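Kindly inspect both lines:
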Amino acid sequence: MEFVAHSLGMTPSDLQRVAAGFAIGSAATVGVCTALGFLPLWFGPELRSWNREFWDEPAAQLIEELDNDPNFELYRVQESNRNFLQTGPQPDSTPDRRIRRVLYFSRKEKLVRGVVHFGADLEGPPRSVHGGCTAAFLDAVAGVAAYRTNRAPCLTASLHINYREKIPLGSQLGVECKHESSEGWRKSRFSYRLYNLRDPKRVYADGDALFINAVIPSNKKGLPPFLALK
């Protein structure tokens, strides 16, 4: 200690004060950065808000609004124990720890609207939803829009996503996906956005997708079978 202090032109007591200040400053910096999500923290206690069985007031209000809108009908999710959006990596993973969503479709507007909850088992960056999970969810929503709009099975041809902000675990967001254009009966394009329910102008992710009708033509006109019969 004395040798180091002497080489730095300081007294041992001055060096101790500098070292103590550096240690306290470093600890404070790590603490603040961790709290703000800038440092990796894939361990430790979970926040109760990450996993919720009930919808917050803005989400509940949107669900009620869509329930009462005659232009929208509830889309009922088919149960599966192998779907990415419905199963988790841990045996004790529950639906509130993964993705919960309520979706409605308006055939008149060719529009899907709804709400989504992102639970604790979807972590990518510390305390934030994995970008791949966000993409999978938006792909699924666009798939619902494509299927209901075209009234036939469709496959994703391309998926473009702009990640605007990190999505904190436990977030309950609004989602919209609308039909933009079609090329014949084969191709259809949709746009979508994931937004803050309290501030709809705050968008976490948006983009567009191109879907291909999966029905194989079986007639000379090149029309899908369900149209050729008309």
